[in-house]
Amino acid sequence: MDLSSTFRFRSQSLTTQIPISPIKSPFKHHQLHFSTKFNTKPKSTTSLIVSAKKKAPIEGVSDELNAIASYNLDFAYTRRRVRDAFAEVQLQLDHCLFKTAPDGIRTEEWYERNSRGLEIFCKSWIPESGVPIKASVCFCHGYGDTCTFFFEGIARRIAASGYGVYAMDYPGFGLSEGLHGYIPNFDDLVDDVIEHYTRVKFRPEVRGLPHFILGQSMGGAVTLKAHLKERNNWDGVMLVAPMCKIADEVLPPDAVMKGLALLSKVIPKAKLFPNQDLAELAFREPSKRKLAVYNVICYDDQPRLKTGMELIRATKEIESQVQEVCAPLLIMHGAEDKVTDPLVSQFLYEKASSNDKTLKIYEGGYHCILEGETDDRIFAVHDDIISWLDARVKK
Questions:
Q1: What is the per-residue pLDDT across 217-239, written as a single tens digit (0 to 9) for each?
Q2: Gene3D superfamilies per the record (predicted)?
């Protein structure tokens, strides 16, 4: 009997801070590639081994850098070394976010140990001296991603418009501590985000100002969960291609789900949620898609079992609570997104109880509308974010 089934996220209807030297910084596509296929005939018993897939060599870099890029990224200290080695290479990439990033932005990078004892990587982008700060914007990145690659250019553009921009890598992602790509409990991850961004609100440069939160892809789910846990803590919520609903008809059969749930308790860290590479579906522009490999610390292996189950659980909880979303709301989605379905955003827009809500669907847009479209489209999306913010800080 063939149990093959695929699903994607869609719908039909106080703490020590450890400063580190600032780097202008780098970025990869936001990988919510979460399709899965189940087979009753595994190729071999070795399929249960937890191991990283072998990465293809990166064109245009030295053998030494390729050797560094192939390191096992399970632990943060390795990811930090790899990121440092590629910092200069990333800055030279032929992408509008790197080439036209505004000058004069003040950046800071640091690590802080949170209440769960995990060392979290944090970064800020502040307007150049003399430019008044209008509000803070706190960013939640997508699955597998980091806040030190493409978001560097996005953050600089928002900061240049008068906003203090703040970001962090979740535990297990980017430069933060934790097993790479592992989410043992989605609510703990959300609590980590709330804890850090609550601290941000009291930073001297933004204390007393409006505070907004921006989430992309899986970061949209993080953002929504953070809002739903503390509904009056944000002056506005912005979502880009959010992961917030899975249609029942595209979930695996109940029997398979029960098997996955059991396996996730026995071997939670195993990379056994098979997935297809959706890079071609995430980036509309081929030239920008080719740059994804330079985000060398992203998690692009098969999802770990517990991670997969936690993403499913989180989206089900969000789906049951969308009518409780009440903050001023901006939802942005590419009309041709095949990673997270724009109908999900329509569903959220219709069900949210927010009095102030805006839905923007970009004709022909793919999943990564912040970085994977034509230059003009990318800048238009960024301008839409800034215009939405400007209209609300003036109220």
A1: 999 999 999 999 999 999 999 99
A2: alpha/beta hydrolase
Q: At the top level of CATH, which class does the domain 17-39+61-393 belong to? A: alpha beta
Whether residue 296 is predicted with pLDDT greater than 70 in this model: the reply is: yes
Q: Do 354 and 327 contact (CB within 8 A), yes or no?
A: yes
Between residues 375 and 28, the one the model is more confident about? 375
What whole-number distance in Å separates Cα of residue 259 and Cα of residue 341? 27
Global pTM reads: 0.86
Distance (Å, whole) CA 125 – CA 118: 23
What pLDDT score does 32 carry?
34
Question: On the CB side of 358, how many CA atoms lie within 13 Å of its CA?
Answer: 17
Q: CA-to-CA distance for 24 and 380, rounded, in angstroms?
A: 24
Domain range annotation of the chain? 17-39+61-393
Q: How confident is the model at residue 395 (pLDDT cuts 50, 70, 90)?
A: low
Lowest mean pLDDT among 24-33, 59-68, 69-78: 24-33
DSSP string, 54-86: PPPPPTTS-HHHHHHHTS--SSHHHHHHHHHHH
| DSSP string computed for 75-127 | SHHHHHHHHHHHHHHHHTSS-HHHHTPPSS-EEEEEEEE-TTS-EEEEEEEEP
H/E stretch holding 18: strand 17-20
Q: Give the type of residue at 135.
A: A
